[in-house]
Amino acid sequence: MDTLLIFAKAPIKGTVKTRLAESTGLDEEAVLRLYRAFLEDTILMATHTGATPVLAYTPAKGRSVIEEMLERVGEERGIRVRAFPQEGEDFDARFASALEKVEGRVAVIGSDSPQLQPRTVKRAFSFLKRRGGLVLGPSGEGGVYLVGLSGGHKMDFQGVFTRGGELENLSAMAEERRMPLLLLEELTDVDVKADLITLVSNLKALRYSSRFGPCHLPRNTMAAIEGLGLRVVRSKGTREKVLLKGR
User: Which residues pair with 143 in a beta bridge?
Assistant: First the structure.
């Protein structure tokens, strides 16, 4: 069994993407709109992977918001997505606890990379099925957007995420245990202004690329970016990219 486990915050105003709000100057309503789009597109992408999508959310009081979103996506795709609240004092504990609630091969992703493609997730599960071990998707600056496990290894995640350097920590664990390891292509987690600039630029190219081959377009994210009037231009006479807001 292949399970795609989505780790996410419930889309509650003022509690999501606070660093993005601080670095861009976008108000809480705009940031919430973006985050909801990221999460909806991530859930939709998950339904195209062939794996069973499951959502682990925080905080527990966000249950109604999460259920409403999953019901809407379920109606669109005809797929029921199970959800449960994360449990644990820190991310390391919540990660380990969530893994105990699923069986078989599992790939864990966040909701910060709406450009993630189903083929990338399928590649992760294909490796886990053939070789077992560990799959990692690097997100830059030592982070990861995907962690895949075959289910045959018990790992202690204490300190892996809370200390930072997740990619290095996890790959070191794999090497220590002589586990097969697959490193996927790098993707951007959208946490700060520079990440959003990269996403806007990439989505423009992805939209055009979709004319020439199959790909998953994160349409909710694209609509939110367009609705907020976000665009990227180069600063005159430099290579620096600037994020502009409004029409």
Answer: 140
